Amino acid sequence: MSIPILSIRGVTKRFTLAQGLFRSPATLNAVNGIDLDIAEGEIVGIVGESGCGKSTLGRIVTGLMRLSEGAVRFRGQDITAIERRELARLVQPIFQDPYSSLNPRRSIAATVAEPLEIHGIGDRSERMDKAVAMLDRVGLPSRFASNVPSQLSGGQRQRVAIARALILNPQLIVCDEPTSALDVSVQSQILNLLMELRRDFRLTYLFISHNLAVVEHIADRVGVMYLGRMVEVAPSANLFAKPQHPYTRALLHSVLSPEPGAGVPDIGLKGGFPDPTNPPSGCVFHPRCPIAVHECAKRDPALMPANGGVAACHLIDPDFLEAPARVA
What is the pTM of this model? Predict the structure, then answer.
């Protein structure tokens, strides 16, 4: 069996939060024991509510944030053992808001060429030629090369961010909500561009988004996160056709319908999002779960095979279902 391009094992990220003068600091597990493998050339989508830890996971993979426990390996090598500049040549991010990540005073050609300058690749003329060629590849002709970010639309700025991410020929791209700040019509253009670039540059994507329609369109597999944990991972077609975890089903039911008069969907969840500094016992989803039983509050379910992937729910565990005395 070939080594996955990215292997995530037991990854946890803790933050210590001050709670005032007379209270002890609280611990927040933003990411809590994540396991995930990504094959070369694959697009894996990560979905979940805001605050579930998906962006933190993305920052850990790119090396922008250190993990507290566990390991992330790129082609079998721990990323903490890879020199920072070398890791940047292997893994690159594309962020949600390109304007905040682009220097407002630099031309877009200079911005795209900057990674080449940092890595000492070519002379100035060669770097600018490569930058202009990459801008053209992402749909920005050479006449835009001297423009600054404020002279571009949101979609054009995102194309600049994509060009900058690709200029070092990375192998893995971490896309963190890359289309959520764009108009719907522009979103489709950027998604199509990402698919073309995946084919032409043989890229692998970790695609983080809250937009389920976007993830269904682009991802080969999907991971669902809740309160820092991975609760389901499955091939995209399987997950959207027959979700196994109750939280995944709730997410899919939460999508607004374009039908007139359909109103806001009833997703069937109880209560609100729990305090992440004081998570519930057992299965962390059980206080909101419409089908929870007594055992759910006592024991944290492990990921187990389901629907061509894995899911963490007691009610898909054959051993659990064969013990009706446990069910209240």
Answer: 0.90
